[in-house]
Amino acid sequence: MQLQFLGTSAGVPTRRRNVTALAVLCSQGKGWFLIDCGEGTQHQVLQTSLSLNQLQGICITHMHGDHCYGLPGLLSSAAMNGRKAPLTIIAPKGIQQWIEATALYSEFNLGYELSFIEVNSQLHHRVGAVTIEAAKLSHRVPSHAYSFTEKTADFKLDVEKLIRDGVPRGPLWGQISKGISVAVNDRQISAQDYLIANHEAEKIVVGGDNDTPSLLGEICHGCQVLVHEATYTEDVALKVGSDVGHSYARLVAEFAQQAQIANLVLTHFSPRYQDHLKAAHCIDDIRHEAQQFYKGNLFLARDFATFDLDKQGQLSLMSRDL
């Protein structure tokens, strides 16, 4: 799977960063999922090779504007670009009411069906080879994390077991390697019993706004990548106060280290953090704080940065900017 960041700023956009949006691209085909849709997301999509006609689903973590104000415009643009396929939106309950009210009062007709699924901790939604699940987080409004697990057909034959069970070499092995069950001496052989996965399922967890990373413990089981907000460094977070409902770099880094997550991508940075090193608050301050407490593969997201997760669970930066 791949990640392409479309917005990495918290609250309001900056000259270099739009508000929150992230594309998760499937390993197979051109399908992709959108997590959050801050204002201007449709403009960000235009700067990429992503197609709204290939969009498989939209997941909204919570109903703050920097995570959802771009949704009506993006849906309308998809219609005007000829989308006909139904689209699933997984989101808090209020999203459906808001979109339906917007459609009513602005008189837009999408021309394709929207299917709304209310997010909760029991979510288990399957789209092709991708399974989407959710976990409840802690924020000023209800907020969730989403996991994306993709299982691809990449198996090898368990040769030792085939020989031990007397399954003769030849065409039967070929059928089993394709996942086809066969009969041997009037005995039915299940192909799945003789196939070994070459790699673990790819799993990425994307957190919404959240001041308690430990809530991600269960959903992060087996994941190779965690994408989580680090709105502040610890010193700024203490000045801002605990009621804002956000995490800081140390808090996320300590959780990722304890949970033994191989790859951590921080995003959703307060606009006060600038790119130049002489700024009062530099974006590298977030990186340096996280590195003190997390020893895995650490990245700070930038708009349009694209990351690739390989079959061995290693995340790498493919491109940084346009």
UniProtKB/TrEMBL annotation:
Domain spans labelled Metallo-beta-lactamase: 18-199
- The record's active-site residues are D66
Q: Which SMART domains match?
A: Lactamase_B
**Enzyme nomenclature, EC number:** 3.1.26.11
Give the protein family. Belongs to the RNase Z family.
Q: How does it assemble?
A: Homodimer.
List the protein's name.
Ribonuclease Z
Species annotation: Celerinatantimonas diazotrophica
